[in-house]
Each structure stands twice: as structure tokens, then as C-alpha cells.
Design brief:
334 residues; alpha+beta; Fructose-1,6-Bisphosphatase, Chain A, domain 1; D-Maltodextrin-Binding Protein, domain 2; five-stranded mixed β-sheet; 7 helices; 17 strands; 29% helix; binds 2,5-anhydro-1,6-di-O-phosphono-D-mannitol; binds magnesium ion
Length: 334
């Protein structure tokens, strides 16, 4: 079945398996369309005048790139008028964006990191969009932060689009993880991998090793053991990769296995971690679990966490399930 369009995949999910309704199908189509627009903007680079800082900051005190702001606007504009959403929340907005009164409202909530890894934009390294879809709880409008504070297990869909040599949308509707590559001439996403399975074992890990002196003991132990290679307790040589774009690092793991860690460390402890729960960790955890992998904070399954704040941060360890189990075990022993 490789090669079917995203549209056909969604229609078949809606028709044959009653897996999704028309509203969710529209939502995914609209997000995919926005990702195409972002892919074009990212691809133009300097020629589009889109590189560099926007001169503004987000609620987390991070400097925004022009493409962070543009990607956020593209996703908002694409999603606010279709009638499928009650509200939207983003890494780049302090509070949710309510659907303007002139448009009909739907039953879903959309969360996104419009352009993750944006520190890589100016050096032409892969970046990506991450998104998560929730149902708007009864009695809420979708404009309040509380509407979005749902555990990751309640996500009805999650995905990312990595803007690399090709643009690839990786999507789960809760029954498997599938990849769709953008055919730039046709302007359509076509399935290039169905029911992705992340190998349970791996010899590849991803961590920002410059933080080593800030790590907790279980992560130090695990990384030291990997570095000892085949003469150490793990009995094999490991390789290391760190793109510093979560989307690109996770995409490598989805493609060939590996373990990704942005663990708790003494530098980010006060904030709870580096990566954001609702629009980075939760969607990636759903995608990885649906592909047979695992995702924890080191101590708990990410998808079971009960969010307290819209922009909450968490430690993230995800990927090949035996390695995630090993390092999670080290945390629980300690
Ligand atoms: P961002 O959302 O501001 O781009 O930050 C998240 C990114 C992730 O994509 C990546 O894994 C991480 O930050 C890299 O952090 P570091 O620069 O500490 O290696
Ligand atoms: Mg991000």
C-alpha cells in the first residue's frame, strides 16, 4: 500500500475502520497543508528573507526566530476558520488562541511547537513542526489553559513534520505510526512507511553531552556504561548522534532505532526539564509508543503525566524500548 496519498489514507481510516470522523480528517489535512507552507518558507531560506531573529521573545524567555513567528502564524491562519477546532495552543503563544467568533467552533484542541529546533535554522540543519490533538472537555470553550491540561493518553492524534532533505510527516491516529513524504512537484504527502516499528535494541544514543556534569547519577551511569563499549557491562559498542533538533533526532530513532535523552539535570531542574510536555514530549511519546518504542521521564511513563501548566517542561527519555527500560530502571533503583 506504500505510495497512497495522505488524503486517501485518512479517507480509508474514516470509511473502513471508523477510526476517525470527518472533523479529525479535516484537522489533519489542514495541519498537513500548513506544514507544506512551512516547508516552502523553510526551503527558501535567505532568499525568502526569513532567517535570523524576530527581535521578540516567547513566554519561556527564549528569543524567537523570524521562522518561529511565521510558522506559528501559518498554523493559526490555516486552522482557525475550518470549524474543526475549539482552540489552539503553541510554544510561541503565552495562552491559547480562541477561535474568532466569526467562525464555527469544533470539538478538538490543537497544540503545536510550530518550528522545533529553531536554533538550527540559520545553519541550514533540519527543523520540524510537532503537533498534538485533544478533545475539548465538556463545558470548556478551548480558550482556557485548563482545557489543554490532559494526560498524553487522551491524545487522539499526534505527529511531526521534519523539514530536512525531504519533508516527511509522521503521524499516528492511535493505530500505528506512519510516514508520508512530501512530493514537492505534486504538493501532496504520499505514504512511504506504514506501521513503523522501532527496533527494541539499539547501539545508538542521543544526548547533549556538554551537560554531563549536570546530569543525575542514573543518566551518568548509563552513558558511562555505553561509552565503555563492548568491554563494559552492556557488552556492545555504541555510537552517538545529537542534531539538537528533537524532530530530527526522533525521526532518526523512528527510522532505525536509538535512544534520545533530554534528562533532568541540575541546570534545568527548577524548570522541570528542558522540553515541553504538551507539545513536544506528549506527541513524540505517542508516536514512539505507537511504533513499539517507549517514552519516560526516567521515573514515569510520559503519557501518564497529569499536566499542571500549559508550558510545563519535563525530562524526556524515548526510543528503543529495551534501552529506555534499562535507563528508567537505573532511575527507579536509585
Ligand atoms: P526549541 O523548541 O526552543 O527549539 O527547543 C527544543 C530543542 C529540541 O529540538 C532539541 O532537542 C533541544 O532543544 C536541543 O537543546 P540543546 O541546545 O540544549 O542541545
Ligand atoms: Mg521546541
Amino acid at each position: 500500500m506504500n505510495g497512497i496519498s495522505l488524503t486517501r489514507y485518512l479517507i480509508e481510516e474514516q470509511r473502513a475502520k471508523a477510526q476517525i470522523g470527518a472533523d479529525l480528517r479535516l484537522l489533519i489535512e489542514v495541519v498537513a497543508r500548513a506544514c507544506k507552507t512551512i516547508a516552502i518558507a523553510v526551503g527558501k531560506g535567505d532568499l525568502g528573507g526569513v532567517l535570523g531573529d524576530a527581535g521578540t521573545g516567547n513566554i519561556q524567555g527564549e528569543a524567537q526566530k523570524k521562522l518561529d513567528v511565521l510558522s506559528n502564524e501559518i498554523l493559526l491562519e490555516a486552522n482557525e476558520w475550518g470549524g474543526h477546532l475549539a482552540g489552539l495552543a503553541s510554544e510561541e503563544m503565552d495562552h491559547p488562541h480562541a477561535i474568532p467568533n466569526e467562525f464555527p467552533k469544533g470539538g478538538y484542541l490543537l497544540l503545536f511547537d510550530p518550528l522545533d529546533g529553531s536554533s538550527n535554522i540559520d545553519v541550514n540543519v533540519s527543523v520540524g513542526t510537532i503537533f498534538s490533538v485533544l478533545r475539548c472537555p465538556e463545558g470548556m470553550t478551548g480558550a482556557e489553559d485548563d482545557a489543554f491540561l490532559q494526560p498524553g493518553t487522551t491524545q487522539v492524534a499526534a505527529g511531526y513534520c521534519v523539514y530536512g532533505p525531504s519533508a516527511i510527516l509522521v503521524l499516528t491516529l492511535g493505530n500505528g505510526t506512519h510516514a508520508f513524504t512530501l512530493d514537492r512537484e505534486l504538493g501532496s504527502f504520499r505514504m512511504t512507511a506504514r506501521d513503523i516499528q522501532i527496533p527494541a535494541d539499539t547501539k545508538e544514543f542521543a544526548i547533549n553531552a556538554s551537560n554531563a556534569r549536570f546530569w543525575e547519577a542514573p543518566v551518568k551511569r548509563y552513558v558511562d556504561e555505553m561509552l565503555e563499549g563492548k568491554d563494559g557491562p552492556l557488552g556492545k559498542d555504541y555510537n552517538m548522534r545529537w542534531v539538537a533538533s528533537m524532530v530530527a533526532d526522533v525521526h532518526r530513532i523512528v527510522t532505525r532505532g536509538g535512544v534520545f535523552m533530554y534528562p533532568l539535570d541540575s541546570k534545568t531542574k527548577d524548570k522541570g526539564g528542558k522540553l515541553r510536555l504538551l507539545y513536544e514530549a506528549n506527541p513524540m511519546a505517542m508516536i514512539v509508543e505507537q511504533a513499539g518504542g517507549a517514552a519516560t521521564t526516567g521515573r514515569e511513563r510520559i503519557l501518564d503525566l497529569k499536566p499542571q501548566k500549559l508550558h510545563q517542561r519535563v525530562p524526556v527519555i524515548l526510543g528503543s524500548k529495551n534501552e529506555v527500560a534499562r535507563v528508567t530502571g537505573y532511575h527507579l533503583e536509585g
